[in-house]
Amino acid sequence: MTRAPVDILQEYGPFAGVDAVHGVTFDGRHVWFASGDRLNALDPLSGRIVRSLEVPANAGTAFDGRHLFQLAQDRIHRIDPTTGQIVATIPAPDGDDSSGLAWAEGTLWVGGYRGRKIHQLDPKTGAILRTIESSRFVTGVTWAGDELWHGTWEDDESELRRVDPRTGGVLESLVLPRGLGVSGLESDGGERFFCGGGLSGRLRAIRRPRKAQAGGST
Fold this sequence. Notes:
Elements: E1 2-5, E2 8-12, E3 24-26, E4 31-34, E5 39-43, E6 48-53, E7 61-63, E8 68-72, E9 75-79, E10 86-91, E11 98-104, E12 107-112, E13 117-121, E14 128-133, E15 140-144, E16 147-154, E17 157-163, E18 170-175, E19 184-187, E20 192-196, E21 203-207
Parallel strand pairs: 1-18
Antiparallel strand pairs: 2-21, 3-4, 4-5, 5-6, 7-8, 8-9, 9-10, 11-12, 12-13, 13-14, 15-16, 16-17, 17-18, 19-20, 20-21
């Protein structure tokens, strides 16, 4: 396993009316982040929130190319980003302990915070297709190409971890400065991760390591 400090590229916020940043996702143009009672679309170039949807949003967020998915306590809502309407709902696999959320391979990937797990779900039924064990709390989940990453925040220490999607074994770790938390995680499909900063009310852009430097792919 390789272990290195993170390279923080940019910090966004704090934002007016935002007490905490939870789930994070990217739609190709805007970074969406959950802040308790709404979803906010951030322009990463200007650093400004350009619109908000009033929906329950206390944990992970994902985007499938058409809809937003949002954890709200023990449920996962599918949301039309144009209207803000909730168009479907499925149960969260770990109830209100569910945390990170990502979309990949036509399925949802959901973190179990204290349960230290990542579940792959059928997005229509909520059925669990696969479960991966983690050795630390899971606070965010994302796929970056063929790499599965998750955020962890425990005992005032936070990391971004690349894990084997079959075994959960840790392949690489990016370590944040002590005291900085990770409450949501998303890849932009390129060289950046976007990370929620929890009660700091901030978002951070972090450099994703080049694949050749990451010890190979999974």
